[in-house]
From TrEMBL:
Keyword Flavoprotein: yes
Keywords: FAD, Flavoprotein, Monooxygenase, Oxidoreductase
Matches recorded under Gene3D superfamilies: FAD/NAD(P)-binding domain
Lineage, highest ranks first: Bacteria, Bacillati, Actinomycetota, Actinomycetes, Streptosporangiales
Protein name (record): FunC10
InterPro entries: FAD-bd (IPR002938), FAD/NAD-bd_sf (IPR036188)
Length: 440
């Protein structure tokens, strides 16, 4: 046995860092999270995140059982499978539409459409003694005794056994640890928005858009839609789980305050940057009218309900972003500073794979640190095994997301026509569809 109790510092209070902190606290490992935001409400990210079984398993393992149950109750059901359609809403292939109902509490099979705001509140539950806000990380220094000291802008320091970079893309921790680490800008730009599900909107929205996730593969550009529809009404959640929520130190009304009108259709429209008007990038910043004008021009000939979805969405929900992806490092040496999620393997937000990869990292790193803390494995060996797995899975996911992004924005008419033909052929011949996409 290797007797060594650990003290862990996590830089960054995003979903990966907080999931790790929850897991370490549950395992009895000393952990502190240092977050540069001044308060828990400083950064409100309102778009949904689709938690796949990989992420569900991680959250189920790291969260206290009561918190997992509240998370499931406050999440939405993303719907069965996914549909691939053309711009006129004609199906190319529908995947997983007839799958049996799954127990949402079973992490190995369940998927959850979660509000990022609600998820962050839940991940912070019970961590009042763990999370330090207003702590801007500036650098670290290693000592010969195996310790590492984190430094902060307010002049304070923290000396620990393990320092974890969970501070997202552009991580300061990772930049110091691996100065050669870099990201590649992709020639893609996305605009995303929400259309809230009012009674009026429900009357004209096609059932396909209300059923779940959809990929639209037109002859130019790319559109993704997804539904966020809570499994339970907030009032029903409060009545059923109110005592449980309060026992976690949370106010049910505050927890659900951002979700009273949270049912919506999310959409993301992705374009090749070089195909945009030269004036658009600067003109569109903070100008919903410019965004709507561009989308209206690029969707001429599309199904009118799709065009209405894009132009009728709430103006203050429109969000514009470019894409980039981390480049894998050629050399790697394990030490007492490690990382997870976007700090290491940043990827475009296509398919929601980045969030699930961060949760997976948190789960695996938690298990490695807990084993070392219990004396079951030497710390260097535990971290070496974690990093090998994290790097393999993380950069495989980066490559997958980059391939999907490049396919979505390609301006090759041949490639786009071939992709549409391939999807349609898989939909027309069920055995082929099952072989390519799995269960339908």
């Amino acid at each position: 046995m290797f007797s060594r109790r650990l003290d862990v510092a996590v830089i960054g209070g995003g979903i990966g860092g907080l999931c790790l902190a929850q897991g370490l606290k549950r395992a009895g490992v000393s952990v502190t999270v240092y977050e540069r935001d001044r308060t828990a409400d400083s950064r409100l990210q309102g778009f949904r995140l689709n938690i796949e079984p990989t992420g569900s398993v991680a959250l189920h393992a790291c969260l206290p059982p009561a918190l997992w149950e509240v998370l499931v109750a406050t999440a939405g059901d993303p719907g069965p499978g996914i549909g691939f359609l053309d711009e006129r809403m004609r199906p190319l292939i529908l995947i997983g539409q007839d799958r049996p109902d799954r127990d949402p509490l079973d992490p190995t099979t369940s998927e959850h459409a979660v509000s990022r705001v609600t998820l962050r509140k839940l991940l912070l539950a019970g961590l009042d003694d763990v999370v330090r806000f207003g702590k801007e990380f500036t650098g670290f220094a290693r000592a010969d005794d195996g310790k590492v000291t984190a430094k902060f802008a307010d002049g304070t320091t923290a000396t620990v056994d393990v320092l974890v970079a969970a501070d997202g893309a552009g991580s300061r921790v990772w930049a110091q640890l691996h100065p050669a680490a870099c990201r590649t800008a992709l020639p893609a730009m996305a605009v995303a928005g929400k259309l809230f599900l009012t009674e009026e909107n429900r009357r004209w929205l096609p059932e396909r858009l209300l059923a779940g996730r959809n990929v639209f593969w037109p002859r130019q550009d790319f559109l993704f839609t997804a539904i966020f529809r809570r499994r339970e009404d907030p009032a029903a959640i409060t009545a059923r789980l109110g005592d449980q929520v309060r026992a976690l130190g949370l106010d049910p009304e505050h927890l659900l305050a951002d979700s009273q009108d949270d049912d919506y259709v999310l959409w993301a429209f992705i374009m090749h940057r070089d195909s945009l008007p030269a004036s658009f990038t600067s003109k569109a910043q903070g100008d919903p009218a410019a965004v709507r004008e561009l989308l209206a021009e690029r969707t001429i000939g599309w199904h009118p309900d799709l065009r209405r979805l894009l132009t009728a969405s709430t103006p203050d929900t429109l969000y514009q972003t470019g894409f980039s992806a981390a480049e894998p490092l050629d050399r790697w040496e394990t030490g007492n500073v490690t990382g997870l999620g976007d700090a290491v393997h940043h990827m475009p937000p296509v398919g929601g794979l980045g969030g699930n990869a961060a949760l997976r990292d948190a789960h695996r790193l938690c298990a490695a640190l807990a084993a070392a803390d219990r004396g079951e494995e030497p710390l260097p060996q535990a971290l070496r095994a974690y990093e090998a797995d994290m790097l393999r899975h993380g950069f495989e996911t980066v490559r997958e997301v980059v391939r999907n992004t490049e396919a979505a924005i390609t301006r090759s008419a041949l490639k786009r026509s071939t992709a549409r033909w391939f999807f349609r052929a898989c939909g027309a011949v069920p055995p082929v569809g099952r072989a390519v996409f799995g269960e339908r």
